[in-house]
Write a structure and sequence with these properties.
Elements lengths: L19 E4 L2 E5 L32 H14 L4 E7 L5 E4 L5 E2 L4 H16 L5 H12 L3 H10 L2 H12 L14 E2 L1 H12 L7 H11 L18 E13 L5 E12 L2 E12 L2 H25 L2
Antiparallel strand pairs: 1-2, 2-7, 3-4, 3-9, 5-6, 7-8, 8-9
């Protein structure tokens, strides 16, 4: 199993449950809860974070067959889930329902922090101690108050839209209520590629910060991406989000985005879902889809000549 994280963290305070965001008449119960820090996921060494593996020698895995298998799995699960995967080591990729739109819930916190980092880089400055504290809380334990402070700091929707243009996101629409931003699995993979690429817009220091926080998500919020990690994983980075949608009769949108590093592969993956009857049902769908997609890809590479 991948190693337990080595970063020592302060005790986590108690957070309010069911913080609501109202926008266009909708009330959104957000994914903030009281949790404790334990068994965190490790990160790679700072020098490895954001490296740019060459895709020129991509193995000849049969991604068409993988896509068909994952599509059949998604259909059997009810079809209200999308998944996109890109292997930074080989250049291989799959996408199933990748352009379907979903509400981000808290996965947008990664995007918000990337926007703040870009603004600081433009100004020749670094994140302040307070901003780092907010960012760590927003990613590691999904603190909504911290995310709101960061969203205000970047200038709200205008700041996020400007950053998304630079990050190459073409299917993400910011909302004044940040958790109601809409996106696609394909766009989230574009974001993940940009924030992990040594040739991307984020500095090495900022890549290290952001992915360090993503490696230290509390155990209660490690699902989806982590279900795709096996014993060969040397690092796992993720952010999850879930939201109870009033206009879908209380059904849940449940999302997970992140990165799995292992020998020969460096997967970035986004799994987005909605119309889940319960939060646990949403977790199950996202877990199963991530495991299916990464598992099929590993098998395809293993059987490639």
């Amino acid at each position: 199993m991948y190693a337990v994280g080595i970063v020592a963290l302060a005790a986590v305070g108690t957070l309010g449950v069911g913080v609501a965001y109202a926008h266009h008449g909708r009330s959104v119960a957000a994914d903030t809860q009281a949790v404790t820090k334990s068994d965190v996921v490790s990160s790679t060494s700072p020098s490895a974070i954001g490296s740019s593996p060459s895709a020129s020698g991509a193995a000849k895995a049969d991604t068409a067959t993988v896509t068909a298998a994952v599509r059949a799995y998604v259909k059997a699960e009810g079809g209200n889930v999308s998944v996109a995967v890109y292997d930074r080591a080989t250049g291989a990729s799959i996408s199933v329902n990748g352009t379907a739109e979903y509400q981000t819930a808290s996965i947008v916190k990664v995007d918000i922090i990337a926007a703040l980092m870009l603004q600081h880089q433009d100004a020749g400055t670094s994140l302040t101690a307070q901003e780092k504290q907010w960012a760590a809380a927003a990613i590691e334990r999904s603190d909504n108050d911290s995310a709101s402070a960061l969203f205000d700091a970047i200038g709200g929707t205008d700041g996020l839209a400007a950053a998304n243009e630079r990050l190459g996101l073409t299917e993400t629409t910011p909302s004044d209520a940040w958790g109601m931003t809409t996106t696609t699995a394909d766009d989230q993979v574009r974001l993940l590629k940009k924030i992990s690429d040594g040739n991307g817009p984020l500095s090495a220091a900022n890549r290290g910060l952001l992915q360090g926080w993503m490696s230290n998500v509390v155990s209660e919020q490690r699902f989806g991406v982590t279900a795709g990690a096996d014993d060969a994983a040397t690092a796992v980075y993720l952010k999850v989000g879930w939201v109870d949608l009033d206009d879908e009769n209380g059904q849940y949108a449940t999302n997970s985005i992140g990165r799995i590093v292992e020998d020969g592969h460096d997967w970035v993956i986004a799994v987005l879902s909605d119309h889940n009857d319960t939060f646990d049902a949403g977790k199950s769908v996202v877990n199963g889809t991530a495991a299916k997609a990464i598992g099929e890809l590993r098998q395809a590479f293993g059987s490639a000549g």
